[in-house]
């Protein structure tokens, strides 16, 4: 519970433990978002005070010595790392899950208001992506570069999460009843785009040494992506079918690989609605 209060210099004897505290806080924040969404519970850390500094660059952190001087927590981090961008992405994930929960439980929610809220969150996701530094953008050269730096797994996890959160945001618009307007149909198209992108980059990461995403939530995200791809196979346009088929196959191969590490993936495959 000490993580609730703001962190101060007195809480740490060296720079390494100071940075560790910041990283632990954001790791717990991410876990709170994931666990609350899967179990249907309110987020516990939603209104907790955030650390003033974001996590630093992973390679700088790995090279730190305990005797280094403590950082000024009131000053912004000069070299934010991948976990810093993950932290800001998680700030958007919570509201996405809350909106989906509201849509599922509040029968009086007006479709026009739902579209407006979806548009606002979509803009936040777009702004987040545009604000990423060039070397953090999802391109093949930067993927290879992070692989060589030893940060390929974090880099891949960051962008897989982005495409997954976007898929969740637009997911309900796959229902024709929710896609009666032009904006609703655009949301449905964006859902398909992000589900495809998730699959394409998951497969690309599996082919690049050091970029493999083998943590259990990847299985859950792959199943969500696969459900969209399956929807496209059944109800999509003819020109969409071939790519959706290939991506669905790639997701299945990734799930088979994940089962070797995490037996619970088998449960998720057999019952996709099982909470994580």
From TrEMBL:
Coiled coil spans: none
Keywords of this entry: Metal-binding, Nucleus, Transcription, Transcription regulation
GO molecular function: DNA-binding transcription factor activity, RNA polymerase II-specific; metal ion binding
Compartments it resides in: Nucleus
GO CC annotation terms, alphabetical: nucleus
CDD domains assigned to the protein according to its UniProt record, in alphabetical order: fungal_TF_MHR
Leader peptide range in chain numbering: none
PANTHER family cross-referenced by the UniProt entry: TRANSCRIPTION FACTOR, PUTATIVE (AFU_ORTHOLOGUE AFUA_2G09360)-RELATED, ZN(II)2CYS6 TRANSCRIPTION FACTOR (EUROFUNG)-RELATED
Name of protein: Transcription factor domain-containing protein
